[in-house]
């Protein structure tokens, strides 16, 4: 029972943190006031004013969003990536305790990570001023596969040392 808690409790706690974050309306997570207060946004404007692209049908540029919102976009997407990198790592860690087959553990870990990312986006659709995006699931899946790969490499190295 201790081993079960040791491996699965971090997964469940991390999922809870993700769920809590998705439950908050955008206004509670708005980084623009903090960025505007603590950064010289003129530098951001000078460096990145020529960048324009589309994400989920919206233009992402300094001209369309302003410097603070433009910067916040990248912080939020980086947070998606890192959050699911950790989740993928933790899921792989927990599953590798149960399965010896590395390929099966890898695949199931990634599928569980993607399923949670999808459920998180669906959950966001019920949160005020939040919207689900397939593109976010793709970022989450990319973070997840990197985290799973890191866990696989680390545990492979640990198992190799034991032999």
TrEMBL record:
The name this protein goes by in its record: VanZ family protein
Entry keyword set: Membrane, Transmembrane, Transmembrane helix
InterPro entries documented for this protein: Phosphotransbutyrylase (IPR016747), VanZ-like (IPR006976)
Span of domain VanZ-like: 8-154
Organism: Fictibacillus barbaricus
Organism superkingdom: Bacteria
Keyword Membrane: yes
Listed Pfam families: VanZ
Transmembrane regions listed in the UniProt entry: 73-91, 103-119, 139-155
């Amino acid at each position: 029972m201790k081993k079960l808690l040791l491996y699965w409790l971090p997964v469940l706690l991390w999922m809870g943190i993700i769920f809590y974050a998705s439950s908050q309306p955008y206004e509670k997570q708005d980084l623009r006031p903090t960025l505007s207060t603590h950064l010289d946004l003129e530098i951001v404007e000078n460096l990145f004013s020529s960048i324009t692209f589309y994400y989920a049908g919206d233009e992402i540029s300094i001209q369309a969003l302003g410097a603070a919102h433009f910067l916040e976009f990248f912080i939020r997407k980086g947070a998606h990536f890192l959050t699911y990198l950790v989740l993928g790592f933790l899921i792989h860690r927990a599953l590798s305790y149960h399965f010896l087959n590395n390929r099966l553990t890898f695949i199931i870990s990634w599928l569980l990570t993607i399923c949670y990312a999808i459920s998180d986006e669906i959950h966001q659709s019920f949160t005020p001023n939040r919207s689900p995006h397939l593109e976010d699931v793709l970022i989450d899946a990319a973070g997840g596969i990197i985290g799973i790969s890191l866990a696989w490499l680390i545990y492979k190295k640990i198992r190799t040392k034991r032999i």
